[in-house]
Amino acid sequence: MLSDLEMLLKLQVIDYDLGELERSKEYIPDMMDNLRKEIQDTMEKYDTTEKELSEARVSLKSMELEVKTKNEELKKLQGQMMSIKTNKEYDALISQIDSVKEYVSERETAILDLMQKIEEMEGGIDDYKSKSEETKEQNDKQLAILQEKMDSVGSKIDVKEAERNNIIEKVSRRTMSVYERVRKNRGGDVVVPARKRACGACYKALPPHLIQEIKRGDRIITCDNCGRMLIWVNGESD
Ligand SMILES: [Zn+2]
Predict the structure, then answer these.
(1) Ligand 1 centre from 228 Cα, in Å?
(2) Residue 93 burial (CB count, 10 A)
(3) Measured between alpha carbons, how far is 96 from 100 in angstroms, rounded to an integer?
(4) What is the pTM of this model?
(5) Model confidence pLDDT, tens digit, residues 107-134
(6) What angle do CA 148, 150, 156 make, to 5 degrees?
(7) pLDDT tens-digit profile of 177-187?
(8) For the range 123-131, what are the long-range contacts, defined as Cβ-Cβ under 8 Å and sequence gap of 24 or more?
């Protein structure tokens, strides 16, 4: 095989790596944002539930206190029954007692509902807490790894660029300009194996004499459809 093609095969591996490194500059910060957001969301879930729980406990206490006061009021009213003189007084007192009883019963139902809600929150809060701590621990680890990657992208690109320049020097200018043009216009690999008597990239069929030339490899053969350089790879091409 021509040494230019051998060099280009190495070059396109480097170019692939360079493309990945450039892409990682975009997706690593996105991944990091998602990990941070997940930490924040689980922490917020825990904080909100904890706040709701403590508010519910305060409100339960005040409701219980209120019911206690109302029950004392009820006792007093019931005590007044003994000193009732007239039917009118009796009716008025009964109606007062009934309304306090009704109020107490309503509050007691509300207390039971709230107690159930508190119980549910108490059951969930430990899960939220451990979930939040676990998420933070795991995501922080991943964030550290990603940060390290992000920090080293620049120097990795420098290394690859240096390798790239090294290779370019060894390839003829004309071949290099074909490589750069196809890479820019088509993307992906520029040097591709012939496959099943066709271009391995665009599948355009290759005439037999070109296949013979690709096999010989004494000049660079390009696909007349996509412009990529074709090589013969035993086992893959035949
Ligand atoms: Zn092609």
Answers:
(1) 6
(2) 16
(3) 6
(4) 0.71
(5) 999 999 999 999 999 999 999 999 999 9
(6) 95
(7) 999 999 999 98
(8) 124/49, 125/46, 125/49, 125/50, 125/53, 128/42, 128/45, 128/46, 128/49, 129/46, 131/42, 131/45, 131/46
Taking the CA atoms of residue 124, residue 129, residue 133 and residue 135 in that order, the dihedral angle to the nearest 10 degrees is 30
Measured distance CA(238)–CA(236) in Å, rounded: 6
Question: Which residues contact residue 124 at a Cβ distance below 8 angstroms, ignoring those fewer than 6 apart?
Answer: 49
Sequence-distant (6+) residues with CB within 8 A of 202 are 223, 225, 226, 228
Distance CA 112, CA 123 (A): 17
Residue 11: closest CA among 227, 170, 225: 170
Give the whole-angstrom CA distance, residue 223 versus residue 186.
12
227: CA distance to ligand 1 center in Å? Answer: 6
Give how far Cα 74 sits from Cα of 6, 42, 91, 106, 145, Å: 100, 47, 15, 15, 68
Residue 1 and residue 237 in contact, taking contact as beta carbons nearer than 8 Å: no
Query: CA-to-CA distance for 15 and 185, rounded, in angstroms?
Result: 14
The predicted structure's pLDDT at residue 2 = 65
Q: How far does the centroid of ligand 1 lie from the alpha carbon of residue 223, in Å? A: 5
Q: How far is the CA of 182 from the centre of ligand 1 (A)?
A: 11
Between β-strands 229-231 and 191-195, what pairing exists: parallel, antiparallel or unpaired?
parallel
- Quote the CA–CA distance of 16 and 1 in Å, as a whole number: 22
